[in-house]
Amino acid sequence: MNPDIIAKALDLAKPIVETGCELVECVLGKPCKVAGDMLADQIYAWQWSNRLRILEKASKQIQELKGDKESIPTGFFLAALDSCGNIENEDLQGMWANLIANSARSKKDAHPAFIDALKTLSGDEARVLQEIANGDVLEWSPELSHLYAMGLVCSGLNFWTRAFGGSLRTHGTKQPQRVTLTGFGKQFYEACTLRPFSGHTQEEWHIMARALHADSEIAQQVNNLKIQNKKQNTFR
Fold this sequence. Notes:
This protein is mainly α. It has ten helices and two strands; from the N terminus they run ααααααααββαα. The model is unreliable at 158-176 (pLDDT under 50).
């Protein structure tokens, strides 16, 4: 389907659609097919809008970090594409983009268990997970309960029995208990975190990651202004 038609139907900037569709074609070896007659369906259109935003970010990350798009496992890519359609939260979209981009560098990052974990994660849980990965000491929260149940985090204290006590504390002391990532939690977090491919330093990686995020926001803002101006001209 023509990118112009998709961009107009989904209210997306054309570069986002073109970049996202190009990644689909690189991985699958054939053009991205979006059912034009289905774009009138709000749920279908909303899901593809989310997918293309994620794919656009992933594609730029792979390109800027000198990865190989064609090395992404097809089965993993299709499963990720199917699952990320319902993700609207910007932080979670970033994690999905990172997961897809990292799958181009290592098959270890293309594990189906990471897809299953990520599609059940909320935006608040993603934030808490990052705080834990950074080594912060956390008070008890509902988000921790789900992360614990998913096998992503652990602590020396069974906080299920102390959930209503307010904080994670070690028996006999007032010092808060540090929550850490499990082995699976570390693998999952690394797979969903943008990491440099060979040939780039950590500093270069962070600079490029910020630039990619800014470019995506600017493209969408410009598209929104065009649509707004078009609507204003219509009523004149």
